[in-house]
Write a structure and sequence with these properties.
Order of helices and strands of chain A: HHHHHHHHHHHHHHHHH
Order of helices and strands of chain B: HHHHHHEEEEHHEEEEHHHHH
Distance between the termini of chain A: 56 Å
Largest sheet of chain A: none
Distance between the termini of chain B: 56 Å
Shape of chain A: flat
CATH superfamily of the domain at 69-157 and 270-400 in chain B: MetI-like
Number of strands of chain A: 0
CATH class of the domain at 69-157 and 270-400 in chain B: Mainly Alpha
Helix content of chain A: 55-70%
Largest interface: A-B, 63 and 65 residues
Oligomer: heterodimer
Structural class of chain A: mainly alpha
Shape of chain B: globular
Strand order of the largest sheet of chain B: 1-2-3-8
Strand content of chain B: 5-15%
CATH topology of the domain at 69-157 and 270-400 in chain B: MetI-like fold
Radius of gyration of chain B: 29 Å
Number of strands of chain B: 8
């Protein structure tokens, strides 16, 4: 009927009889409730899967979905509330009468809190803050640790914020001068100056640099020219090494702090940063080795990488702590921090190498060929063409590796170092604060610190990823 | 002169010559380094009055190992078992925890990964929170948390927390489960089960052939499930149900020292095992969830659209189009997560669960003092597992690789 009517109207319209012409726009109807506003959002994000009752099967599905959603929501809210309740609402915050453990005891246990109380015991953490952050580092020297942190944070921040000037220079300072500064500040320096080794390194360095300069000036020709280029670079290494020897050798009148007294977050940061900074160049070398055409270099890189990647970090640390003393000549003694550092770094560099290899493989073959075609040497083409692209490409992967090594530093507590976790674990054993909530409180703090660092790094990596993503 | 220096330059600049030179230097440096290490080691060992050799393995181990899968499997007895037994016990316990962890982490990880992709905000928020939390906290800390903060808060030795009354319960000494006691004739049920599994494989191959020839789809899943349940069940009942249960026995009367769970009753999972299992599976599940999410997102939308354009039903789209392509992305990182579980099981040394590192490189090493041999043996186990996994991964990759034309 309706279609018949419209046809008639249309027919009429063609016969120049004005039937109906709309003069104004149709009123704008509100969008359906399921697609706009908060209700629409809720529908889209929650109820869409629960509101289909058209068939029996769909109804059963919807009901099951609703039940399951309610169940998950219940657990989720319960857990979040439980955590907040433990950490904030029910927590004990102050210990005005210096009762120590009794302040967190329930009536049953001989304290004042109601029975069945379960909350964090913050006075315990407040009392142990220094130990958790610095270990047994002497109180009067804590400014040294703090100034090391501060300088490191400033330099790192400078490098990370991309509108600041001189970022490359600051980065170079961070990788060369800063480690020496940190070593002197943290240990106290004054290891004694061996004039012989400083002298040898300086003279060797100067000689190599002059050789390099001579090459640049064109005084050297023929086969030695290439050697002079390498020599110039190597010379600076020797000079740097000599400078480092002088810096840690000089006595700055700082009291010596044995690494056995280091602890807490300090150890965690020292192990993590050293492993990261050293493993990156090592990883690059290994990755290049694994991709190289030289059979010996390739085989050795593969063996190295697969060996370290194939064994757990714990066994590496065990090996470092019991076998390094056997490997060293008599009289050479590595302290346990250094041994752990060696272990973690070697292990880490294998992982770093695999991440970087991924980047090298992702580079288009044309880039390699192009570099060859313009006559760059192997190292030039790597330094100028391949690595810059490969490293930016795998930057998220590198950050992931850094996050994982940061977390894995907690394992050094198993070989007897008091890192963040180890130090906290040892405060948990302190009977003066012995309460049923002691362990939970301590772990909560450590978890929070690790979470802040790791989550922050992962967000930074996502930011970098977005920034580098050129959308193709 | 000119000619001579020219050949020399050519020779020096030849990439092959340089390569050979560089490699010779590398080998020489390495040989020197290892020679130096070996020399130092031998001197140090001589000074300590030690010698190299594996003879210690047949010596009897004089220390207790807590009752676990490994000690049961190798029938450990202080005073008669050797260090080689200790080694195998360690391997068995490591593998046990790895297998348990892999199963649990896979289930939890896939669930969380799919939940994170859900349209339902509740699921998404829940999964996201859990994944971000578990991923960013060191596994050792999680292990300590489960062991020292949660399991230590359980009722003491003389009490219990019942999960299923009289069947399953736990206290600070562990989780008590009924232990199956296979009796005479149970072996037939096992054989029947094996046969059913083999038969299912056969059916699935046959079904594939039928589908390739006629296009008809056989409900393999239903048939297989039925076969695997029905055949062993009939055998089991026909042989007069030859399986008894040793229930955990709990006494709360009688002399104080005899109360609690009775030794030798039921099957006990030690709290160390539970803590390691929980920590490993939850931590790894967070990573697996991310892998699963990435894998599913990697299947481009066009694939799903094309499938529905071809008239394939949504269920089949998921099973035949999305999952096979997602699996290609998921499997390699998933395998390396499985490997991580195996390697991370070594963390159990921190809470003294008797796995390889703990019993062999810990207790046994302290007694025997054969650092080099024992650490070598320990590392070989992990290396073997890793290399086998890597070999599997290469095989899988070459099998599922996109064939580019």
């Amino acid at each position: 009927m309706v279609s018949n009517g419209t046809r008639k109207q249309r027919h009429a319209a063609t016969n120049n009889e004005t039937a109906f012409i709309r003069k104004e726009d149709a009123p704008i109807l509100p969008p359906p409730i399921t697609s706009a506003g908060p209700a629409g959002w809720l529908y889209e994000n929650m109820f869409a899967s629960m509101l289909d009752y058209s068939t029996l099967g769909a109804a059963v599905k919807s009901i099951l979905m609703a039940i399951f959603t309610a169940f998950v929501a219940y657990i989720f809210v319960g857990q979040v509330y439980g955590l907040l309740d433990f950490a904030i609402f029910s927590a004990v915050w102050q210990d005005p009468e210096e009762q120590k453990r009794q302040v967190c005891w329930t009536v049953e246990q001989g304290g004042k809190l109601p029975n069945g109380w379960h909350g964090a015991c913050w006075p315990y953490i407040i009392a142990k803050t220094k130990f958790i952050l610095y270990g047994a580092y002497p109180n009067e020297s804590l400014w040294r640790v703090n100034s090391t942190y501060l300088l490191g944070a400033i330099l790192l921040g400078w490098v990370m914020i991309d509108w600041l000037p001189y970022r490359k220079f600051v980065g170079a300072v961070l990788l060369t001068i800063y480690p020496i500064f940190a070593t002197v500040m943290l240990t106290g320096g004054g290891f004694g100056l061996s004039q012989f080794s400083v002298g040898v390194n300086t003279i060797l360095g100067l000689a190599l640099i002059s050789f390099g300069r001579a090459g640049k000036m064109g005084w050297i020709t023929g086969p030695l020219l290439d050697l002079s280029k390498v020599a110039g670079v190597a010379g600076w290494f020797f000079i740097f090494f000599a400078a480092a020897l002088v810096s840690v050798g000089l006595d700055f009148d700082l009291s010596k702090v044995d690494t056995r007294d280091w602890g807490g977050l300090l150890i965690t940061l020292v192990v993590a940063t050293t492993a990261i900074v050293v493993s990156l160049p090592l990883g690059i070398l290994l990755a290049l080795g694994r991709r190289s055409n030289l059979p010996v270099a390739r085989t050795l890189s593969i063996i190295f990488i697969e060996f370290w990647r194939g064994v757990p970090l714990i066994t590496v640390l065990f090996m470092a702590s019991v076998m390094i003393p056997l490997f060293m000549p008599e009289g050479v003694n590595f302290d346990s921090l250094l041994r752990a550092l060696i272990g973690v770094t070697l292990w880490q560099s294998a992982y770093m190498a695999e991440v970087i290899r991924g980047g090298l493989q992702a580079i288009d073959k044309g880039q390699y060929e192009g570099a060859d075609a313009v006559g760059l040497s192997y190292w030039q083409s790597m330094r100028l063409i391949i690595l810059p692209q490969a490293l930016t490409r795998v930057l998220p992967g590198i950050v992931n590796t850094i996050i994982s090594v940061f977390k894995d530093t907690s394992l050094v507590s198993i070989v007897g170092l008091f890192d963040l976790l180890g130090a906290t674990q040892s405060t948990i054993a302190d009977a003066a604060w012995s309460t049923p909530v002691q362990a939970s409180t301590g772990y909560l703090v450590v978890a929070l610190i690790f979470f802040v660092f790791c989550f922050g790094m992962s967000r930074y990596s996502m930011y970098i990823e977005r920034k580098l993503d050129r959308g193709h | 002169m000119n000619w001579k220096s020219n050949t020399l330059t050519k020779f020096v600049n030849d990439a092959n010559v340089r390569g050979v030179f560089f490699q010779v230097v590398l080998i020489a440096a390495l040989v020197f380094f290892f020679f130096w290490l070996t020399d130092n080691t031998l001197t140090n060992l001589r000074n300590q009055g030690k010698s190299l050799g594996f003879a210690f393995l047949s010596g009897t181990a004089g220390f207790q190992i807590s009752q676990t899968f490994g000690t049961w499997l190798f029938d450990y007895k202080v005073g008669t078992s050797t260090y080689l037994d200790v080694y195998f016990i360690g391997i068995a316990n490591t593998l046990l925890v790895a297998v348990l962890g892999i199963v649990a982490a896979t289930v939890i990880g896939f669930t969380l990964g799919i939940m994170r992709l859900s349209n339902n905000i509740v699921f998404r928020a829940f999964a996201t929170t859990y994944i971000e939390m578990l991923r960013n906290i060191p596994i050792l800390l999680q292990l300590f948390f489960w062991y020292f903060a949660v399991l230590r808060a359980l009722p003491g030795k003389r009490n219990k927390l019942e999960i299923i009354p009289d069947l399953i319960g736990m206290n600070i000494t562990g989780l008590y489960l009924p232990a199956p006691l296979p009796q005479e004739g149970f072996v037939y049920s096992v054989i029947a089960f094996t046969l059913a599994v083999l038969l299912t494989f056969g059916v699935s191959r046959y079904a594939k052939r039928v589908q390739a020839r006629t296009g008809k789809i056989t409900p393999v899943f239903l048939i297989g499930t039925a076969l695997i349940i029905v055949i062993p069940l009939i055998t089991f009942l026909a042989t007069n149900s030859p399986l008894g249960w040793n229930l955990p026995e709990f006494k709360d009367t009688g002399p104080m020292l005899r109360r609690g769970y009775q030794a030798g009753s039921g099957m006990i999972l030690v709290p160390e095992l539970i803590a390691v299992w929980l920590a490993l599976s939850l931590y790894t599940a967070a990573f697996i969830a991310e892998i699963v999410r990435a894998g599913i997102l990697a299947v481009s939308k066009g694939q799903t659209e094309a499938a529905s354009a071809l008239g394939i039903r949504p269920n089949f789209t998921l099973r035949l189009v999305v999952i096979p392509q997602a699996m290609r992305v998921i499997i390699p990182p998933l395998t390396s997560q499985y490997l991580n579980i195996t390697k991370n099981s070594s963390l159990a040394v921190a809470i003294a669960y008797p796995e390889l590192v703990s019993v062999f490189a810990g207790t046994a090493l302290n007694q025997v003092g054969k650092e080099i041999e024992m650490i070598f043996m320990m590392m070989m186990v992990y290396l073997t597992v890793s290399l086998i996994t890597a070999a599997f991964m290469n095989w899988y990759n070459s099998r599922v690789k996109l064939v580019e034309r």
